[in-house]
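Students often ask why inverse folding is considered easier than folding. One informal answer: many sequences map to the same fold, so there is more than one right answer. In these notes we will look at a single instance of the problem. The structure comes first.
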C-alpha cells in the first residue's frame, strides 16, 4: 500500500498541477505526504557557491513549501512535511526518495523549464527511469489538470487497469479497489488478445490461419474465465473488456479515448517481468505517449532492478572520486619528493591509466593517491 508519498515541486504553476491528484490519491490511502524543493545554485567565477545567495534561495524555497503545505492541509487529514535540498534536481529527488523509503513519487510531466514538444521533461524522465519506485505522472499540458486552483476537485469516474493475467499486473487491484470505493468510480479491467505473429513471405495457408484462430480463441476463453474470477473477488464488481487485435499498445491507447478514462493504473512489469528494464513495453508506451494521469506501481524491489551500463560506470567513477577525496596527502608528498619506488611508480601509472581510460577522470594528486593505495 502507499504509506509515504514524495512530491517534488520546483515553484512553477505547471508543477502544482499534481496537487489535485495527490489529494485524490491520499484521500483513498491516508498516506503521509512530503513536499520537496530542490534548488540548483550557480557558481561564481571562482567556481564557488555564494553562501548568501544559497541562504536566500533556501529561505525562499522553504517559504514556498510552507505556503503549499498550509493550504494542502485543508484538503488532507494531516499537514504535509517539507524538505529543501540543494543540487541537481533529478539526482537529489532520487537519492532522497530511496534513502527514506518512499512508496510513491508524484511528478508533473513539466515544470519550471516550461512546456515543450516532448511528452515528459528531461528531469521527470530521469526520475521515472532511475528511481525504481512507484510513480504518479500527471500531464501538465492538459488545460483541465490545474482545475483552476481547486485542489479538492478531482473525483475519478473512469479508471482503467490493463491486465495480462499475471500476478505482477494484479498488484494494482488493491489501490484500484480503494479508489473505486472512495469515488464511486467505474473500474474497467482490460485485456488485449494479440493475434500471434507468423513468419511469412507468402500469404498464410488455410492451415496457418486456422492455427492462429485457434490460439486467439483459446486465449479469449482463458481471459473470460480470468475476468469472471476477478469480478467475484472485487467489490464493487468491475466492468471488463477483452479486445482482439494485432497491436497491444495501440488498442489500449484507443481505449483511453473510447471510455473517457481519467486515471490509468498499471504495474511496472507484466507477464515477462524483465528486471533489466525499469518498465515493460506497455508502461513505457503510456509514459511517452499518454495524455492521461498514470499511476505506475513498481512490482520489483529496488535491488532486483538491474542498473544500466551507464549507471554502473557512473557508480564506479563516483566511488573512485569519493575514496580519492578521503585519502591523506602522504603519498602525494612522497611522490613530489621522489621517494616512491620505481616499481610502485610503474604500477601506479598502470592503475591510473586504466582509471582514466575507463572513467574519464582527470589526473589529480588525490586521484593518484587513491590509485597508489589500490596497490596495497
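Output (designed amino acids):
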Amino acid at each position: 500500500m502507499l504509506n509515504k508519498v514524495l512530491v517534488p515541486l520546483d515553484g512553477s504553476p505547471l508543477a502544482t498541477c499534481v496537487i489535485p491528484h495527490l489529494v485524490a490519491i491520499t484521500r483513498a490511502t491516508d498516506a503521509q505526504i512530503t513536499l520537496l524543493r530542490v534548488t540548483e545554485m550557480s557558481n561564481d567565477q571562482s567556481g564557488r557557491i555564494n553562501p548568501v545567495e544559497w541562504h536566500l534561495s533556501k529561505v525562499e524555497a522553504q517559504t514556498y513549501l510552507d505556503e503549499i503545505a498550509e493550504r494542502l492541509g485543508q484538503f488532507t487529514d494531516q499537514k504535509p512535511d517539507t524538505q529543501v535540498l540543494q543540487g541537481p534536481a533529478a539526482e537529489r529527488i532520487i537519492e532522497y526518495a530511496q534513502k527514506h523509503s518512499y512508496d510513491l513519487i508524484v511528478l508533473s510531466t513539466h515544470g519550471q523549464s516550461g512546456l515543450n514538444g516532448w511528452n515528459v521533461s528531461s528531469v521527470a524522465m530521469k526520475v521515472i527511469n532511475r528511481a525504481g519506485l512507484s510513480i504518479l505522472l500527471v500531464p501538465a499540458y492538459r488545460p483541465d489538470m490545474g482545475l483552476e486552483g481547486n485542489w479538492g476537485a478531482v473525483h475519478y469516474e473512469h479508471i482503467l487497469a490493463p491486465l495480462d493475467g499475471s500476478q505482477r499486473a494484479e498488484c494494482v487491484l488493491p489501490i484500484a479497489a480503494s479508489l473505486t470505493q472512495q469515488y464511486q468510480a467505474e473500474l474497467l479491467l482490460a485485456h488485449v488478445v494479440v493475434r500471434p505473429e507468423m513468419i511469412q513471405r507468402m500469404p498464410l495457408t488455410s492451415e496457418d490461419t486456422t492455427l492462429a484462430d485457434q490460439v486467439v480463441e483459446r486465449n479469449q476463453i482463458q481471459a473470460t474465465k480470468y475476468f469472471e474470477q476477478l469480478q467475484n473477488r472485487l467489490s464493487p464488481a468491475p466492468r471488463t473488456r477483452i479486445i482482439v487485435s494485432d497491436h497491444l499498445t495501440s488498442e489500449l491507447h484507443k481505449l483511453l479515448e473510447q471510455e473517457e478514462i481519467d486515471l490509468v493504473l498499471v504495474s511496472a512489469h507484466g507477464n515477462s517481468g524483465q528486471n533489466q528494464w525499469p518498465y515493460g513495453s506497455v508502461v513505457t508506451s503510456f509514459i511517452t505517449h499518454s495524455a492521461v494521469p498514470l499511476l505506475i506501481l513498481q512490482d520489483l524491489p529496488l535491488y532486483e532492478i538491474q542498473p544500466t551500463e551507464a549507471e554502473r560506470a557512473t557508480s564506479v567513477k563516483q566511488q573512485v572520486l569519493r575514496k580519492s577525496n578521503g585519502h591523506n596527502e602522504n603519498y602525494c608528498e612522497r611522490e613530489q619528493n621522489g621517494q616512491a619506488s620505481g616499481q610502485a611508480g610503474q604500477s601506479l601509472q598502470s592503475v591510473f591509466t586504466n582509471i582514466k581510460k575507463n572513467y574519464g577522470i582527470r589526473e589529480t594528486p588525490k586521484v593518484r593517491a587513491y590509485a597508489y593505495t589500490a596497490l596495497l
